[in-house]
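Worked example (supplementary).
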Amino acid sequence: MSERRDRGFTLLETMVAFAILVLVLGAAYRSLGAGSRSAASAETLVAALSVAESALARIGTDLSDDPGRRVVVEGGWQIDLTIQPYRPAEDPLWRQTGLLPLTARVAVSAEGGPALATLQTLVLRPAR
Amino acid sequence: MTRQAGFTLLELLVAISLLGLLAAAAAGGLSFGLAVWQRDSALASDRVETRLVQKFLTRQIGAARPLRVSRGPRQVETLFDGRAESLALVAPFPAHLAPPGDHLIRIAVEPGQGAPALIVSSTLLGGTRPLIGPEARRDLLLDGVAGLRLRYFGPGPEGAPPGWQSSWTRRDRLPDLVELTLTWPEGSTRDWPPLVIRLAGEGLG
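After joint prediction of all chains, the assembly is encoded as:
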């Protein structure tokens, strides 16, 4: 046994060592790939957030502020807009202002995908 | 017994060439990994820049307001010159960058340091001017852009229903919304969706 060891590594030992090296390098590459993919998805999230903010800015002007739910598809994005009466609207404060507060919620997704950005805001319109 | 004497030339050559191949593969892998790493960190800093610039534009254009001119008794006029490729408006400039007071601000894609860039030029209109210091400033907001396209939402001329228009030069009213689209040079990794900004002072003037 000791005589065999003196002669150096066997082919088998070397192969095993290489296999381990390849596995470790492979794992390192996979994590690199995962980092790259998450960078790409963060890119999409930032764009979705910008689309959601733009949609909220448009409520009451080129998007209707009527209560209800509507879905708009624009430039590959699906904009899901829900407008509901703001619940503490019975507060005398609101009656004094003559304004009707509404809650606007927007969820933006790539077409058919899960929601990437969800934002909510308070919209005011004249109480009629 | 002959093996104890050392390696043969052939064995040595095989070992060296194997080592060479492995070293080449490792170097290739490393440089590829480094390139991916650098691209990812560049994308990450682009994203931060994107958000900062979008927030700045939203705040600055959203703060547009009518200008008080003393031509008549308490006369108010809007100074909002919206074109398809540039925009001039009156708004306060961020306090940490300029003295307080209304500024005339122009946003356009112009030649920056050589290449086209999104430039914000501003001049203090009222306020207290410092005795020494620049009266106008010109800030490079974003480079690596090709062009700027703008649209304006508001009531049409002569009572026409509200809609998107390619320019806004009315003096009696600000538009309700401004839509800002940046175009990028060929091969750019950036792609912003159109940015829609609501003007807080829309009804004034």
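Two points are worth noting when inspecting this output. The helical segments of chain A are 2-6, 11-58, 92-97. The radius of gyration of chain A is 29 Å.
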